[in-house]
Each structure stands twice: as C-alpha cells, then as structure tokens.
Amino acid sequence: MALARRTAELVRLDRIAAVIFALASSWDFAAAAPTAAPAEPPKPAQQSPAKGATPAVVLDDKDVETILGREIYSDTGEDMGKIVDVLVDHSGQVRAAIIDFGGFLGVGTRKIAVDWRAIKFGPDGKSDHIVLSLSRDQVRVAPEYKPGEPVVVLGAQSPAAPATAVAPAKPARPPASGTPGNQAVPSK
Amino acid sequence: MVSTTPSRRSLIGLDWFTFCLADVQTAFGAFISVYLTTEKWTQGDIGLILSIASVVGLIGRVPGGAIVDAVRSERFAAAAAVLCVGASALMLALWPIFPSVFLSSVLFAGANCVLSPAIAAISLGLVGYAAIGERLGRNASFQSLGTALTAAGMGACGFFLAPRAVFLMTAALVVPTLIALANIRGSEIDTARAHGGLAAPSPDFGRGLRRLLTNKRFLAFAGANALFQFANAAMLPLMGSVMTMRSANWASVLIASCIIVPQVVVAITSPWVGRKAERWGRRPLLILGFAALLLRSFLFADAPNLYFVVAIQALDGISAAALGVLVPLVVADLARNTGRFNLAQGLIGTAVGIGAALSTSFAGFITDRYGSQTAFLALAAVAAFALVFVYLTMPETRPDEEQ
Questions:
Q1: Which of A83, A85, A67, A87 is closest to A167 using CA atoms?
Q2: B202 DSSP 8-state letter
C-alpha cells in the first residue's frame, strides 16, 4: 500500500517535472524569439534559418492533422471507433494504428490493430473523415491487440494495397480469401 | 429527542439526493476513459489513472466509513463529498493534464468512499430500524433510475456533445444534488441511530474494528459479497466484448440495452425487495439474488442469440436489486448497537472491491487462454460456490420484533 502510494507519487512528480520542463522550454523559446528576429533581416527568397539556430519547417495546419483520439470511419461512413495508438517498427516506419472499436460507454470495446496502409487521411470527396478501408464485419472478428503479445495487423481490403518500401524486409503475403492479416511478432 | 416520523419534505429530499447522485457518479465513471482518449491521452496514462482511482476506491472505504462515523453530521460529510465530486468534474473538464486529472480522480474515488455509507446512514438516521428495509428499497429504486437515465442520455449526447460537455454537466448537477440534500432536515436525523445505535460510540477506533472483524456473521457476509462480485463484476464487460465481436451493427445498441435493462428491473423490484426483507427476512432474498447470478452465468455461457442476452440481463437486475437493498440492510442488522455502522459498510465495500478487481483479471486470463465460453463457465462455478457459501454460512439477521 505504501509502495503503491510512493510509486504513484513518483509518477506524479515525474509528470510535474515534465510539465515544468515543457513550460520552461516554451518560455525560453518565447523569450529568445524577439531578440533573434531583429538581428537577422528578413530574406524573402531564402527560408534557411540563421546560423546556429535550429532548423524548422512551417506547415499549413490544413496539410497536417493530429490522429490520436480521432474518430475513424469506414468507406460507407460507418463508425469504426477511435485511433488510440500507433505502432512503428525499428526503423521508425509506421506499421499499424490501434483502433478502439465497438462497445458502449467503454463497455465491450475491443482494441484492434489495422494496417497503416488501410487508412486514408486525405480529404476524400466532401468529408475530412479519416477513413479505414475495412468494414465493421471484418474488424469485429479480429483478435484483440494486447501489448507484449504477437500483433495481428488487419490488412488493407483491396488486394492492390501498395507493398512499397514500408516493409522491405518482409515479403508481402498474398491476401488469402477473407480479411488479410499480418502477424507481426515483436522481438524481445 | 428526535421525532419518530420524518417529514415528507425530508423523505422526498432523500429520494432526489440518491437520484442526482447516481447521475453524477455514472457520468463520471463511465466517461473518463472515453474523454481522455479524445484529449489525446495515451492508453498507458489512462490505464494508470484508472488503476490509481480503483486503488484509492479500495483502500479508502474503511477510512471513509470511519470518517462518516466520526463526523457529527452525515449531511455535512455528504455535502463536502458532493462538492469534491463537483470540483473534480470541473478540474477534469477544464484542465485535462496529468496532475489535475490525477488529483481529480483521487478526489472522486475518495468522495465515493464517503458518499455510499453516508446515504445509508442518513436513511437509517431518518426512518429508524423499523422502516429501513422499505427505505433502502426506495433508495435503490431512485439510484437505478438516475443511472439508467444518465446512461441513456449520455449515449444520445455522446453523438451531439463534446465529451468535455459531459463533465461540465456533471459539475452543474452538483447544484440540484446539494439542494436535495439541504431539503433533508438535519434535526430529523437521529445521529446515534445513523451510526448504528449507541448514543456515544467508544472513541477507540481499533476496538470497533476488532469487534467487527471477530464477528463471525459479519465475516461470512463480507466473504459472500466478495464471492458475489468475483463471479459478477467481469460478466457484463466480457459479454460486451463478445457482442462487439458477434454483431457488426447492433453491438452498441445491445450493450446499451444490457446496461439499461437491469437498472429498470432494479428500479421496479427494489421497493418490493425492501418490503419482503421485513416480512420474510433477509436470508431467502439473499439466496434469491445469488441464485439469479448463478442462473445468469450459465445462460451467458450458452447464449445462442444476442437478443436473448438482453433478456437474461433482467436476472442481473434481480441480483442487483436483492444485493443493493440487502447489503446495507444486513450490515445495519449486524452493526446494531455497535456505533460502527459506517465503518462496517466500509469493510464490506472493501470486500466488494477486492472481489470485483479479482473478477476482471480472472475472467481476462481465462478468456485469453480458453475463450469466453469457458470464462463464463468458470464464473458460473464461482457463482455456484458463492450460493453454497451463503446457504451454509449466512444466518437470518432480522432482529426480533420487539426492539
């Protein structure tokens, strides 16, 4: 009991430290920015940062989006749950998204790993939904994702899913009848 | 001396207090993980917060009950706890960052440890031993109505409102809860009776605890409650998962029905349970509740059709009505003349919490290895053991008529 409380305390201190650190670093940045700006006259043609400054890229927020906690829909607009996690391999390539599927008020939801290539992010037609090219019927029967166990990644629906450089080491398995699934075994 | 018949105003205040409180508690408990997910919390952090809250909810029961016993006014303790719940909902809605969510969930779990004994204590102090069975039936009824309406409302609002709005609404609900509480006249609550008799309970906390822990009937009842939850707690979540797997389009509606049906059954049958507990005694109804659990787990293991499962959930309502009324009632019987009614409730609450926690891990483990049907059969075995245990160890606790 005392141990549990101490662990919780440690964790909380850790979080507070992280928050303070984040605040401090953002304050530093805010303080440094105005002094740096007048020293360097603006060069409209050249976007390269000043010598010694951290290189940065400015993106239009219409071109990028956050995905954690976002609703995901099927091609036909069915509710497929929310994206709750993203899995990457050792090279940092995104392999799968974990979606929290089904249930009601958190009762009976299942976490399912779906192939990253089965998800479409672009504004597809009129809606800006994130779209998963799998049907509810395909997702509901998939084995649940559990950390520390072999991950069954539900594959893309169309057999023509591009098997590009995403997984160069592993030959793309020809999709069998039904839903193609990938066994990705975590190395320990 | 306190008047023996409480005013209508106080009784209606208690009705609405239990109703509003159920609203607040349901909204908070069910929605927190959904909300944190939309706030981009990682699954690890959400799991950490939920386990911290359940640990606090478990170890806080006994001190919570002891606090209610020690405080002069049950209403004051309840009001403070309701304010904590409101503050915690507001914190969650406004600052979904780790330190505040951590504090908020600890505050909520702690407040619950005070609120559940406080409702029973206020009831006992208000109506006395002669009418407590009927009153507890009425409480359970209003509580279930609150839970059912909130679950249904949140299911509907979830599509239209931001998850944050649910917590703002929860915080706003604290106002009617406190108004209802204020309508219960403090002067009509017999403080001594609310603590389980004895005008001046001995200040020695350790002796009170020892007295309860050496009472054989009390220990048997705590064991029976732990066993009941061991068989019960994992059953609906497990069935929900099975439903999500088996039905593509109707799973959400079916799961929602599985949550709401038992609440409706509890709302309808609890007053009846309360009346019969006075007439037949506690033991037959307790056995009925445990038998309904056993039957339900067998039917779940076999469940041929998901619509049938919704019907089976009526049995959950029968168990919940029986236990919801009888647990505080039997505790009141056992803690009579000890002055430790709330401490006793806290101890039983701890047993319930341990049973529920074990249930989830046990059922999860068996499901992973052998599938959900075997898990339901294992839960049925536990339920059968619980029924035999109650049959053999629990005597009738209804006091003789003359007191």
A1: A87
A2: -
Nearest to A1 among B59, B97, B151 (CB): B59
Q: How many Å apart are CA B370 and CA B363, to the nearest integer?
A: 10
How far apart are alpha carbons B167 and B32 in whole angstroms? Answer: 9
pLDDT digits (tens, 9 = 90+) for B342-362: 888 888 999 998 998 889 889
User: Cβ(A110)–Cβ(A103) under 8 Å?
Assistant: yes
Query: Which of A100, A107, A111 comes nearest B240 by C-beta?
Result: A107
Over its C-alpha atoms, chain B yields an Rg (Å, rounded) of 20
B102 CA: distance to closest CA in chain A (Å): 8
Just give the CATH number of B1-194. 1.20.1250.20
Which fold is adopted by the domain B203-397?
Growth Hormone; Chain: A; (1.20.1250)
In CATH, A71-165+178-184 is 2.30.42.60: no
For chain A, positions 157-186, list CB contacts with chain B under 8 A: none
- Average pLDDT over every residue of B217-245: 89
Residue A157 backbone phi and psi in degrees, to 5? -70, -45
Beta strand pairing status for A181-184 and A79-88? unpaired
Written as one string, the DSSP assignment of B331-343 is HHHHTTTTT-HHH
ipTM over 0.95: no
Whether B151 contacts B73, CB under 8 Å? no
Supply the pTM of this predicted model: 0.76
Domain boundaries, chain B: 1-194, 203-397
Residue B15 is predicted with a pLDDT of: 86
Q: Which residue has the tokens 């072999």?
A: A150
